[in-house]
Structure formats: structure tokens, C-alpha cells
Amino acid sequence: MARKVLIGLAAAAAIVLVTFAITGYPPVGKGTQGTVGQAQRYQAPQPQMVAKDVKLGDTAAQQFMQTDVFDRLIKDETARKLLSDAAVREALSNKALVDALRDEAVARALSDKAVARALTSDALSRLLRNDAIARGLADESTAQAMIAAAKSEAMSSGAVARAAGNDAAQARAFRDPAIAAALKDQAIAQALRSDAVAQALRNDALVRALKVDAVRQALSSYAIQRAISDGLLQQALRSDAFPRALAADGFAQAVRSDQFAAALSR
Description:
Elements: H1 2-23, H2 33-43, H3 59-64, H4 68-75, H5 77-83, H6 86-92, H7 95-101, H8 104-111, H9 113-119, H10 122-128, H11 131-137, H12 140-151, H13 157-164, H14 168-174, H15 177-183, H16 186-192, H17 195-201, H18 204-209, H19 213-219, H20 222-229, H21 232-238, H22 241-247, H23 251-254, H24 258-265
Helix pairs in contact: 4-22, 5-21, 8-21, 9-17, 10-16, 12-13, 12-14, 12-16
């Protein structure tokens, strides 16, 4: 009798073990499936963070902001006023513009009162905002041809051709549909006839700077024109701190960073 009982218990235990293996232990009731599932999800191992997942800030900008040059720049009152304008910082984040401002001749040109007046005049601003005309201003002979064409009473193709003369490069420039269309605009023609434009074009360094797209775009921006009109850009270029910063690696990258803006606000 005892033997039969033991055999029966062993068989029952085997059935229970097989059932647990199939359904899991402890058994999950209908109302607790969500809770157990959440617990299982919570206990799932989190993926390890690897080096490629870490996005580091721009190294050049970070290195620049740890230098003595940056410290002097932040402590310079004129530079702080200039760089407090986010639009100015955005313009200076273009390395081509920074390179142009590092040119001492360009810096002197911007500090010239007559050039400053020309750059902030409505006439030159209007011309610089027209890409085709602005490119033409960067070439002395083409600029003079455009002025001559603008002074012509009839802006006909014949007048433009006579202004271009026999110069092949000028002739190609005047065949540019954008230039031809711009020269027929009375506001553009009037601007080309202004004394401010003539004054600006007498400065070789400025004309050379106008060959750079970034410089033309910056000089046509209201932020840079305001900085020139207020004298902030000229004062900064004459200081010790700002030119050093322009010459330092990482300056263009740093000025567009949040850390740079935060440092200015302290």
C-alpha cells in the first residue's frame, strides 16, 4: 500500500513540474499580466553607453575658450558690446569673414570715416544686397562700367555695351542676365551714381574684401552695419584683444556656441 502511495506522489510531482515548465512559475493570473510584464521590462538590462554615443562639443571651440586670449576678449568692454549681438556673432562664425578682418588693410579701411559712411549708406547697402551687382563692385573696371551705364539716361543694351567697352571680361559680366536686370532697376541705378559708392570704391582694401562672398553678405547685414555705424567694430579692431581673438584657432567655432554666449552674460 505504501509503495503505491509513493508511486502516486512521484507521478503527481512529475506532472506538476512539467506544468510549471510549460506555464512558468509563479503562474500569472489574468489580472496581473501587465504588472509582471512591467516588472520584467524594468528588470531588463539597459544597453551600455559606448564612446560613439557621446557627442562632444567642438574641440577647437573648447580649446579656444580655455586660452588667455579668450579671457582677455571677455574682459574687453568694447569686444563684449560688439559680441553681445547674436547677429554679429553669427556673422563672425564665418571663417572667411574672420580671415578678411584679420587683414590689416581691411581693418584700416573699415576704420576710415569715409568708408564707414559709405558702408552704412542706403545706396551701398542696397547694392551689396544684390549679389550680381555686389560681385561686379569687386572688380574695379566692371564697377566703373556699371556706374557709367547707370549714369546713361537710357539703360539700353547699347548703353551697357558702350560702358563695357572692348574689355572681354566686362562684356561677359554685362551679359549676365542678373546684372542686366539689376541695372534697369532705377533704385540700383541711382545707388550706383551716389558719391558714397564712388568713395567706397576708391579704397583698394575694401574692394579686395568685397571679392569674398562672406564679406559682402556681412557688410550688407543690418547687424554689421549698425556695429560700423556705432563705431563698435572699428574700436574692437583697434583694440588688443579682438584682433588676437580673430587670429586664434577656434574663434569662429566658439562665437556660435552657447558657452560663449553664457560667458558674455556673466
